[in-house]
Design goal:
By secondary structure, this protein is an alpha/beta fold. The chain is 45% helix and 14% strand. It has 2 domains: 167 residues, 3-Layer(aba) Sandwich (Rossmann fold), CATH 3.40.50.620; 90 residues, 2-Layer Sandwich (Histidine-containing Protein, Chain: A), CATH 3.30.1340.30. It has 11 helices and 7 strands. The strands form 2 sheets. It has a 4-stranded parallel beta sheet, sandwiched between helices. It has a 3-stranded mixed beta sheet with strand order 5-6-7, covered by helices on one side. The protein is globular and about 55 Å long. The mean pLDDT is 94.
Length: 266
């Protein structure tokens, strides 16, 4: 570990010590590192809470359960109702604000008396993009210790390896709603269709990809290092997506890039 990264780790541990700490825990790379560091820092009490709704893939929930169990941290699941908010369901460009407002507000109301410190896994690289959810975090007094210490995505993965976390090499996995083109209404049926298709594609051996919901049709975007496998599996890819409920699927020749769908919707 470089001296710079070691210093950031020490700063993170210092930040996490002290009064009880609740972590908004998705089970992804960032929040898993935050939970592992918090366990080492040993605040007065530690709790991980995962918001559960149709926008959270079942595989992601199982991952969160596994990480919390491995770390030996108390883990609760809290139902959230962002889909009941018509502002969220309309899927505007700031949809994430309404989702995080629901999650953080519910955490604050449910746990705030005993757990005054609530933290999320935002990292330093997240601060530069279009992140409406950050505004909701600020409004609810949620802290972002990884970002505060200047920990980048690559550094989060490096520290995850240091802690021996199974999430260290996992691809990023944003919520299912992030697959839906802006302005296309979101409901549980649409999210379920995306989840079925992505589960089937993982079953074909693909690891880092997104299935974009463009309405009746879908677009399959795959990481650069996996695109060479498309030609041999094209028929299976198309069958998997159509069986999930889409009318058509296109395979994007461009490598997967986070944020492309939002840019195209702007």
């Amino acid at each position: 570990m470089s001296p710079e990264l070691a210093a950031k780790k020490d700063g993170l541990l210092d930040r996490l010590r002290g009064e009880p700490l609740l972590i908004a825990f998705s089970g992804g790379v960032d929040s898993s590192l935050l939970l592992a560091a918090a366990r080492e820092a040993a605040p007065a009490a530690l709790l991980a809470v995962t918001g559960v709704s149709p926008s959270l893939a079942r595989a992601q929930l199982e991952q969160a359960r596994a990480v919390a169990r491995t770390l030996g941290v108390e883990h609760l699941e809290l139902g959230t109702e962002e889909l009941a908010d018509p502002r969220y369901a309309a899927n505007p460009g700031d949809r994430c604000y309404f989702c995080k407002h629901e999650l953080f507000g519910r955490l604050r109301r449910r746990f705030g008396d005993l757990w005054p410190r609530i933290a999320d896994g935002t990292n330093a690289d997240d601060l530069g993009g279009h992140r409406p959810g950050l505004r909701a975090a600020r409004e609810e007094g949620v802290i972002s210790p990884l970002a505060e210490q200047g920990l980048t995505k690559d550094e989060v993965r490096a520290l995850s390896r240091h802690y021996g976390l199974a999430t260290a090499e996992l691809p990023a996995s944003p919520c299912l709603a992030s697959r839906v083109v802006t302005g296309l209404a979101i409901d549980a049926t649409r999210l379920g269709r995306i989840e079925r298709a992505e589960d089937a594609l993982r079953g074909l051996g693909f690891r880092e990809f997104r299935l974009r919901d463009l309405g009746d049709r879908a677009r399959f975007e795959l990481s650069a290092n996996e695109q060479g496998r498309v030609a041999a599996r094209r028929s299976a890819i198309e069958s998997a997506v159509l069986a999930a409920g889409f009318a058509a699927v296109e395979i994007d020749p461009r490598p997967l890039r986070s944020g492309r769908l939002s840019e195209e919707s702007a």
